[in-house]
Amino acid sequence: MIKQSQFSIYDFLGYIIPGSTLIYSYIIIEKINTDHFESIEKTLKDFGNINAEGIFIFIICSYIIGHLLSFLSSLTIEKYSNLKYNYPSKYLLEIGERSHYFKKITFKKGKITKDLKTNFWRLIIGILLLPIYTIDLVFNVKKNYTKSLDPFLRDQITLKIKRLLVKLKIEVSDFDLEKHDFHRIILHHSFEKNTSHQFKMINYVALYGFLRNISLTSIILFWVYTYTGLKNFDFNNPIDVKILTIVFILGFISFVSFVAFVKFYRRYTLEGLMLTLIDEEI
Q1: Angle between the 182-193 and 198-231 helix axes, to the nearest 10 degrees?
Q2: Rounded distance between C-alpha atoms, residue 225 and residue 215, angstroms
Q3: Is Membrane a UniProt keyword of this protein (predicted)?
Q4: What is the pTM of this model?
Q5: 219 and 128 in contact (C-beta within 8 Å)?
């Protein structure tokens, strides 16, 4: 077992860097918005003149903001990914049908209200993640980044999962992987048993958490400057190309970070599945 330090790599990648990125990005882009591009150099020099006390406060603020970003990104970015593409453990093994973002309305007593409420909250998430949702329609993340494994690997991994449950004396009356959260068992078993792979798995968690938070950071900045552009919009004056450029760049960064998150989320899941497959004791 890897000896965990009290301050891990996830604290840096998952919390401090996204938090500081949000703070720095807002300050720098605000300078671009209010002054000129020439002021960026002066702003960066001002950052270099911060004293030890200021650095400590900045790190604490970044860490706190990073935790908030992590929580919110799990409710938005990761939730959106799971709803639209299904969990990686499911689409890798081709378990069940591919997810559809909006739930099909069931016209039955007591169900229609629940389905409408579910779709309402999914609509809210979709609107909040508008840049990702829009660009995804063009580049089709589901087709390019959520491919299933080949039939041989799928069959062998499913067989190993069944054997693992028996070995761990976990009783399952119906061996239907679609109904059960089997992946948690696989990951815990793989992590505990394969010490040589623990660092790799930790890195995957840190990377997909980092990219998930960076994606949300870009989304927040996207809406901040979309609001600024709309607030200052005037039909009698030309469109502010500077703000429009910033908005497009932030929207694109949010999508690229989201795609990278999906990739490492998939790799992390695949690592656990493959470690289960090559376990000779199962």
Answers
A1: 130
A2: 16
A3: yes
A4: 0.84
A5: yes
